[in-house]
Amino acid sequence: MLGSISMIAVALLIAVATFPALWKAKQRKEIVVASIILIVAVISGVGYLNKLVIFNPIFIIRSTFEPIGRAISDLFQA
Amino acid sequence: MRHIHPRQYMILTVLYTIGTSLLIIPSLLATAVEHDAWLGAVFTAVFNMLYVFVYVLLLQRFPGLSLVQIAEKLLGKWLGSVVAWLYISFFLLLAVLLLQFLGQFIHTSILPSTPVWFIYFTFMIVIVIGLAYGVEAYGRSAELFFPIVLLFLGLIMIALVFEIDVSRMRPIGERGMSPILLSGLKMSTFQEQICLMMLAPLVANKGKQTAARALVVGTAIGLLVLIAITLLTILILGSYNTAHFVYPVYVLVKKISIGDFFQRIEILMIAIWFLTVFVKIVVTMHAGLIGMTQTLNLKSCKPLILPVGLLIAIYAMIVFPNTATFFEFGRESWFSYALSFIFVLPVSFLIVDIVKRFVGSLFKHEVSE
């Protein structure tokens, strides 16, 4: 619980530190992109702290590329 | 736009190539081919130079463009964007893996009581500061670090010369060339110089000193260091110990003891490694940020530095629960995944460009007739 709150607090600090300057400089696109990344980071972090992995790219990479790697190794060993 | 000198780019390349390879390549090679690990390192270097040759051709054909810009120019808006985002995900995932590896090493070898998340976040703060100051700042930092890294590495190599036993590398090529070639190919995917292509447009070419030349020279120097270190671990520790220690170079440096006063200098190895890994993570993360900026047509990548830094630090905790799964991923899956990005895609770009230019010249010829 404390970890989740800390994660959200850090994200809010980042938002407070960066967004006003971006708004003043009319960098709206940058605000949107940075916000999306922050939200993804916070959701992933809160999920991890509650022992729930929402998205781990390693699973996709392993299922896609491990068979290819094995095929190449078999080719060399043949 | 900020620029760096080709010499700084070369130094970044050397430190980037050494990166994490210094600590893990000898162990992985010795596991695969035992006492022929040094030959495996030689083939690693050969394959790496082949990849860099492809990058140089792309840099010469598309001067001033980064990798994602080349992808979009060659493949069109939609397919180019897909490939660009695949590259961006590769760079960011690589940054996560590097940070994770660094954190695990520090946690297991130096600070076992310190929570590993604290190490990730502390290191990420330094990286974010480096990125916020820009490529000129961390390029100059690398220039400052470089003589120190060379000095420490030279000291370590000289101190270890007396421990060498040449019989440990015999018989050479006992199992044939095939396993050595395969291990060299697999290890060549751990240097990832492709990230440096994203920084190539930031290099202010000066006459013969170009980004392409700096990339080649820097890679060659970094790979020579790798071969030398691998050779030393085999000649001193032997293939069995090199394969069974997780960080054999660290163990190797612990053996140094001259006159009972010049000893316990493994901290020098850790210092070198901190510097090289810092450069590697900064460059990799910067490559990802540049990719996002160019693909999304943003004015600058600075607003994204903190959020992306937070995302990478959090994912460093998520991706692997422990070192064993990390090494298993490195052994089984990383090779084919990384090879797609560091060789297959760049060669595809080259082929598409050659075909496009050939067809274009044919068409021009027909029109002029």
Provide a quick synopsis of the model.
With 78 residues, chain A is an all-alpha fold. Helices cover 85% and strands 0% of the residues of chain A.
Could you report the average pLDDT of chain B, rounded to the nearest whole number? 89
Largest sheet descriptor of chain A:
none
- Give the name of the CATH architecture of chain B: Up-down Bundle
* Gap from first CA to last CA of chain A: 54 Å
Structural class of chain B: mainly alpha
* Strand numbers in spatial order across the main sheet of chain B: 1-2
| Strand segment count of chain A | 0
The percentage of residues in β strands of chain A lies in under 5%
Radius of gyration of chain B: 21 Å
Given helix and strand content, the structural type of chain A is: mainly alpha
Describe the biggest sheet of chain B? 2 strands, antiparallel
User: SSE order of chain A, as H and E?
Assistant: HHH
CATH fold-level label of chain B: Amino acid/polyamine transporter I
- Fraction of residues in helix of chain A: over 70%
Question: Which residues of chain A form runs of ≥5 with pLDDT under 50?
Answer: none
Amount of beta strand of chain B: under 5%
Helix content of chain B: over 70%
Query: Distance N terminus to C terminus of chain B?
Result: 44 Å
Secondary-structure element series of chain B: HHHHHHHHHHEEHHHH
InterPro entries (chain B): Spore_GerAB
Transmembrane segments (chain B): 9-31, 37-58, 78-103, 115-135, 144-164, 215-241, 261-283, 304-322, 334-355
Organism (chain B): Paenibacillus montaniterrae
Main location (chain B): membrane
